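Re: beginner question about structure tokens

> Can someone show what the tokenized structure looks like for a real chain? I only ever see the sequence side.

Sure, here's an example I had lying around. Input first:
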Amino acid sequence: SAASDVYKRQVEGNPLKSARVALIPEHSRSHNLIHATSSDSDGHFTLKDVPPGRYRFSAAHTGFVEQHYKAGTNDTGPLLSLSPGQKVSDVLFRLVAAAVITGRVSNEEGEPMQRVEVVALRRPSEEEIEDIDLRRLHKIQMEPVASAESDDRGQYRIFGLTPGEYFIKAEDSFLPQGGPVPVDESFWLKQSLGSDF
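And the corresponding structure tokens:
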């Protein structure tokens, strides 16, 4: 099976070179099974010799929010089912420029605080709330989506965020409550294609 198409930026509509495009088997727990490639200077990509199966299909690029195949606003999209000999074309990923939050953590004397975990939290979107059982509606809480640690100057930078409204929480501990933000598929994709992206 093969998949081929153009990959563009959402705002400018220009082709995006060196975007990472991947098919990840539905139940894969190993990065060795990822079928991945990078887009060329025209934003085109091709994945060949992909075995039949069900895959998570996504595209990513530094500075942009990862986009999943036919995904809605806040979901990972449906699985792509490939049958023997099937060719999928005319797939278009439109990436949105990622947001960044920066700041400085200081104590009461204005001195920088080092190794403070700063967490970006967000409320569930209206689409996500619609999917929540009404009996659980009163329990909806903000969820952590990304974090960063302050440096020796007390400065932090949280990047790769979907544009929107966030709340910031700083804790003088290495890990935020609820544990670290999990490693996403783009980590394994970088392992597969190299770290130059």
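Each token stands for a local structural state, so reading them left to right follows the chain. The helical segments are 126-130, 185-193.
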